[in-house]
Structures are given as C-alpha cells and as structure tokens.
Amino acid sequence: MEIRYSKLTNEKGLFSTKEYKKGNILYILSGDIYDKPTRETIHIGNNIHIYDKYGIYINHSFNPNIYINGCELIALCDIKINDELCFNYNDTEINMANPFYVDNILVCGNKK
C-alpha cells in the first residue's frame, strides 16, 4: 500500500500496490485503540476505534472498493494496482467525530 495524492479528495489517499480478488483480505489494521472516535480513527467494534498508520488515509466513497470487518480490510470487488482504497463511512462508522457532506449527502456514520 502506498500513500499518494487523491483526486477524489484533493488530499492524501491510500492506494493499492498489488492486485486483489473480491473477498481477499488486503490488510489488517493495527495501532492505538480508543474508546471514542477521532477524526482519523476507524470504528472496529463496540466503543473500539483504531488509529492505524495506513487507515488514516482511507477515504470515504459511496462506491467503495473495500469494507471493514473488525480489523480486516476486505475487497468488495477486484482491485488493481494503483486503485485508491475507499470505504463507505456510513456503513462502518458510528458517531463520527467530524461529520461532513459529499454532494449534499451527510456522511456521519450509521448511528445504530
């Protein structure tokens, strides 16, 4: 994986340096654990949020190519070299620390 400029956000993003088939595990998140969300953590369980050195660069998309299952990043489709890795924050995150809008749609997590 490689951190590069993202045309999707005009900021940094995380890009694949390998090919993956749908259903493959791309990466296992690891790092500091928090009981509350921050702008850069990823929700991985009930009151469990992880700050991962690569995870902080995974951008939101309403057409994601990965999803988060616990600490695993899993391919939703075949991923090619140089594809930006994105997940839908509304599917995974709960009580986001910094909600935002994309095309007038609120990205705030899935407040279950």
Primary descriptors:
112 residues; mainly beta; Beta-clip-like; 3-stranded antiparallel β-sheet; 1 helix; 12 strands; 4% helix; 38% strand; globular
Describe the protein's architecture and organization.
The protein is mainly beta and 112 residues long. The chain is 4% helix and 38% strand. It has a single domain, classed as SET domain (Beta-clip-like). The strands form 5 sheets. A 3-stranded antiparallel beta sheet has the order 3-9-8, with no helix packed on it. A 3-stranded antiparallel beta sheet has the order 4-6-5, with no helix packed on it. A hairpin with a 4-residue loop joins β1 and β2 (11-15). The longest helix has 4 residues, at 89-92. The mean pLDDT is 89.
In short:
With 112 residues, the chain is mainly beta. The protein has one helix at 89-92, and strands at residues 2-6, 11-15, 25-28, 32-34, 42-45, 48-51, 59-60, 66-69, 72-75, 86-87, 100-102, 105-107.
Produce the secondary structure layout.
Layout: E1 2-6, E2 11-15, E3 25-28, E4 32-34, E5 42-45, E6 48-51, E7 59-60, E8 66-69, E9 72-75, E10 86-87, H1 89-92, E11 100-102, E12 105-107
